[in-house]
Every structure is written in structure tokens, then in C-alpha cells.
């Protein structure tokens, strides 16, 4: 054979024992001392008959073999399942888009059923003309499309107390990333004619909890979106159908679902959700309040406790997600030794503002144990801190905004465990 | 009240009769002569009780009220539903991502069930070392993420004969757009060590039809992807689980599902799918063959026959999709008078190469009839042609590659119909 184009020889070594042998058993003229792959000599049922027709699934679900890729909740976390949360199976996903069907939910009085015909959105308060929009009204305003991450402020919250939950889904799964279609809130505020005295908006939803939050006017007029589609289709019931608020880069709690009312005010409401909840008490007794912006954060999703390494030494793909509410992720580093040394990972695409960024480290595993970490940096120059660094600033009483570096202890057998390293 | 910030007054007029009146009935101190909105005085059940808990749907489906947003097939199009096609409900979608669950399917022997453990991918032919990869092997190679559209070459094919199908879903719905995660085919070809004599690859799938196609080596080494995730999660059964080929910008038929084998060859195979099918006979008796690249194309998805205008004159959002296999969409124009005059639409985002682009025209409807069209341009300078222009070049015997300008006749009552205009 004439010249050929080959890859780096070190990687081919890992395949030689498996793939080459299997191919050798069937490739014409090649004699190799290897066990033939039994699969290739048996009848392959899927290749020998007809499959499902095009009328089988008007709206499809994942194949049954992907039953690991589901939302999960942790029963002991909350008193009931109604005011509660579940977690996105980030250990099993790749890319950046989170399918609506397995994207985490956080409800305060459960997910409600609200029809488009019944839907109303009121804009009132310090405005020239209070207005009540129907869903059909909203569809007549100019729309925008944006991909944004939504992270609950309590994401990773259990980990303040230590390495508690054994899986990236549970430690970091209060997050999703979707392409939203909607009308800028600014457009609706201008429609009502907002007063120059308006410094805040109070937003609430149509569910029993209403989940009212105060948002400063600068943010409301900036990039807040009144959204009615996610990943191309209507919002799912559990994601606020038919309309939710999207507050890019800010706490998930503010992304009010089943959005019902926006009131322009000259002061904040200081609702339950921004005083009793979503605040953190520091060691000196004062509380961090209105910690709106989600700080830069990252996590290795694979390998991880729910995604152990199932092969031997050799080529290994380490992958994970990074994000920042302050703008675009610029860099992610990965460590295999608990933060002693770092390598810079490859970003699948340049970081997008307030959206999930996928990173990869294509590396070689020597088969030994690893203490895997990732560390994100965003465009402000901020670097994701260690848990020790965070605790020094926040003390030990925090619930929210735990964006510390996560460590997975990966053992020689490929299994991983959530640990803390100093 | 002090100064306030208002939008353009012409748009506020449309709301005055509805929204303002409704708000007026409840806003403090405002007396308006209008019927109170009955909805606001009745008990709102959804606001008065608890909704679903977080364990209700480990993997969710759309809310029942969105039952229009499904794949549909046209029974008389094919002899059976096994070697057949269905259509994406593009009339009801927005943004650019197509959810896997309602993304169109085209099968030649039905959608098969193939487990990851049973999956094998062979690379053979003019290579140093024939290889057979397991799914687990593929996960060890460097991955990439890309958003690409996939369009069947037969999309809009029925319309060659005239204005046949009454809906954008049916005229243009053999298309979807997803974020793919996978390994470049180039990587795997280098792994096997492809020969300099290799000018083509022959790709086939594991289903009974195998759907073999020949792809020129330059394309195979360029951006062809061996993909195993779409929109973050595993490919759906009907989209080729667990692995499919992604051939950016090229005919959907080449995006072999359940990818089984890639053979490096010094000549094309001239399989059934590239001779008997996916070719078009011209008036002089010769055939267009290997018309790989999907030309620039666009369609207005709303208003359209399945998405009539349900409001009166005033603000109207005209929206649709544009795409090109030759690169990025640079501009989309919209006409309301069947192509006599054109306005340039707003692109939701700058065009991305080989991905769907969403466009909007935020306009004012005078309530009269319209002949709505859209016309796309891509980065090569190519302009989407009219049907007349296309027929002059292709004759009347074509089945595939109908990328002509589409016309919807919108009547005063808001209903739309598929028509041809000269």
C-alpha cells in the first residue's frame, strides 16, 4: 500500500488489543491471533428486519436504554416533593443544550397547569398605563432568541457541610441551559410607560407561592426576557408554561415561572424569597442579601461517581461544564492531583455570556488514582475558588452560592467518589 | 407622575382596546369604560392549590395543550409507513433548536433498536489497519460540538408539481437543527491509517436498508462527524441511536443512522441511494447526480396555513427559518405582495454555517390580503430562486432539491393557503 495518514501511534496501541483484533477476524486476508468477536458471527436482529414506522411516535421519548438519564430528587432534602427540587442528569449529558424533559425543577408550591387562554400578564405600578396582556398579545411584540444557563442559588448547597452527595447530578445538577425565545421585559415596560421614579420591579408568578422577587430597574431594562419558548418549543409545564421570566446570569429563583405580574416600584418589596430565603448569614451575624449574580463555576461531569471510568489505562476524555453570570467563561483548567498541578482544558466553543460552556481534556490515564478538579475563569478575571477559600470569606453558615472547586477521587478501578481536599 | 419612558405610540393603540381596558378595571384609581375581564374576578384554580411534585416526571413530555406540536406524516405519500417520512411541526416552533421528540424522521426500513453494547463501527478498505470500534471506544476520542441543520433532499419535493400541501410543516418540514456531539470522522480514518489512494468513503448503517452512500474523501476529512449525542442527550432511537453520521450542509440521506461501516475506496460505489434515488432527470434526459449540498432556502413559518393570524390589523410578527449548506445565511427578505416588493428581515442572530437561522419581520398588518414570501441569501452571494426560475433550469421532472421561494396567500380573516404565484 502507498503512503497513508496515521494518527499519533500511542493512541493506536489501546485499540490494538480490541478493535484491531475484532476487525482482523473479518478483514479480508488478514490473519490475526485473536478471538473473533462473537457478535459478528451471530444474526443481528436489528439488521434483519423492519423497524418502527413514521407514525409510531408523534412526539418521542428517549430510548429505554437511556433510563439513567432522568431527573432525580433526593427525598431527605425537603419535607415534601411539592416545595422541592430535582436535579439534571449532567453526568450523562454532553454538549451544552439541556433537554426540557430532564432539566431540573424547583417549585415552591408544585408545577401548575395554566392554559394559554387563561394566561394573563399585568404590568402595573409606577407606569402611565397599567396593562394586562394575554398570551396572544405577547406574540405580537418583537422577539429575541438567547441561550442562557439557569442555576438555582442553592446548587451545591449541601456541599457546604462537606462532601455529601455522591454524584455530579446531585452536587451540581440544579442547572440547565436552553435557547429561549421571548420578548424583552423592557419592551413591555415601555409599552406601559414606566416612570423615571421606578427603581425596581416586583415580579410574581401565578402559582400559589407566587414566588415574588424584586429586581433592580437597570437589570429589568437590560436583558431580562419574558420567555415563552425553550429549545424551540413551548415551555414545559414544569418550566413555567406558558410564560416565564428569564434573568440572565442571575439566581434561578428570580426566573419566575407562570409569570403573572410585574410591578414598577420606587423601592424593593423585601419579599420572603429575598429575606428569609436566598440570603446567607456570615460569621459576624450580618447576612449576604441580594446576591443576584451566579459566580463563575465549573464541574467535571465525567468521570464522576455516576460516570465511572469503564476502561483501562490509555486515552481518557475528561469533560465538564463551566459557566458565569458575570459574562463569558474564558478558560477552564483541570487537575488530576487535587489542585497541585493544572492543565488547561479545551473549550468546545468560545465562552458565551451567561451560557453553559463545555470543556474537554483529552488526556492519557496511567491507571492510578486521581483527585479530579476543574477551575473556571471568566472574562472579569475572576477565578473559581476552593472550598477553603470560600469558607474563609463566607463562614460556615451558608446555604447558597457555593461555587467552589469540586473534587472527585477516582480510584484505580475507575470508580469515583465525592471528596474534599484541603 | 414625573417623566416616563414610552414605546412608539402606534403600537400602544392596538393594546388600548384590550389590555388597557382589562387593566383599567383593576388598577387602583383608574376609571375606564370597559368590560372587566371576567377571568380576573373568578377563582383561579391554578393559583389556589398545589401543583405537581418534583418526582412527577423523571423525564417529561410537553403539556397536553401543545398537542398540535407533533410530527405528522402524509399517508398517501408512501406505500407504507416503514420506508417513509414524517415532518417537523415548524409552523409551531420558534428559535432554532428542534427538539428530538418532534424532529422529522426518514427511514428506509424503519427505526431500529440497537443497544450500545451491540453497537460496532468498522473502518475498512484502503487503510493500514481495519478497525472495529465499540461505542465505548468512540467515547475515548476527542469530541466536538456543532449545531447543524439536517434537511432531506426531498424536502418541498411535492411542491414541484404545484402548491400541493397546505402547511409549512408539510411543505418544508423535512428539516431539523440540533447540537451534535461526536468524533470527527477524520480522527477515526487517521486511526486506521487511510491510504493516499483513498478518494471516497462508502458509509452504511446497521438497519436492513443499510442506506449506503459514497462520500468524497475531501468532505469525509473535512467536517463529517460521527455523532452520538444531540441536544445534550443520546440520539433518539428514531434519529439513529446510538451513533449516526453528520454530514454538515449535505443531503439528509447521507447522514447515515445506526452507522455501521465506513470503507475507504478509490472509487464511488454508485449505490441505489445515489443512482436510482436522490437524482433528478433534466429535460435533456441527463440526470443531476451527487447533488450533495443543500442550497440556500427559507420559509415563513408564521403566518402559514397551520398558523393563521388570529388577531386584527396592527402589529404582526412574521417569522421563519433560513439555511444554506454552502455556509452562513447573510440576509433574508420578506415580501407581502408575492415578490413585487421586499423588506429585509431581522436575523435573530448572525447566520451560522450550516445551521438554521431564525428571521423576524416586525411589521404592521393593514388587515388586507397578503402574498407572503421569504427570500434567503448566503455568504456565497447566492439568492434563493423563484419556482419559475428553478423550473427553467431543472425542468419538470425533479423530485429533489426544491429550494424555491414559498408563497402563502393570507386572507383578510387571517387564514393562509399554499399558492403559486408567477
Give a written overview of the molecule:
Two copies of one chain form a homodimer. Chain A is of the alpha+beta class and about 425 residues long. Chain A folds into two domains: about 70-160 and about 175-290, Sulfite Oxidase, Chain A, domain 2; about 295-420, Immunoglobulin-like, CATH 2.60.40. Chain A has helices spanning about 10-25, 40, 45-50, 135-140, 170, 185-190, 215-220, 385-395, and strands spanning about 5, 85, 105, 120-125, 130-135, 145-150, 175-185, 195, 200-205, 215, 225-230, 235, 245, 260-265, 280, 285-290, 295-300, 315-325, 330-335, 345, 345, 355-365, 370-380, 405-410, 415-420. The longest helix of chain A is centred in the N-terminal third of the chain and has 16 residues, at about 10-25. Chain A starts with a strand and ends with a strand. Chains A and B meet through β1, α1, α3, β2 and β3 of A and β1, α1, α3, β2 and β3 of B. Chains A, B: Keywords: Metal-binding, Molybdenum, Oxidoreductase, Signal. Chains A, B: It is an enzyme of class 1 (oxidoreductase).
Q: What is the gist of this entry?
A:
The structure is a homodimer of 422-residue chains. With 422 residues, chain A is of the alpha+beta class.
CATH topology (level 3) name of the largest domain in chain A: Sulfite Oxidase, Chain A, domain 2
Radius of gyration of chain A: 25 Å
Give a count of the beta strands of chain A, DSSP E runs of length 2 or more. 25
Number of helices of chain A: 8
**Number of structural units classed as domains of chain A:** 2
| Estimated helix fraction of chain A | 10-25%
Secondary-structure-derived class of chain A: alpha+beta
The CATH superfamily label of the largest domain in chain A reads: Oxidoreductase, molybdopterin-binding domain
Instruction: Return residue spans of chain A where pLDDT drops below 50 for at least 5 consecutive residues.
Output: 24-34
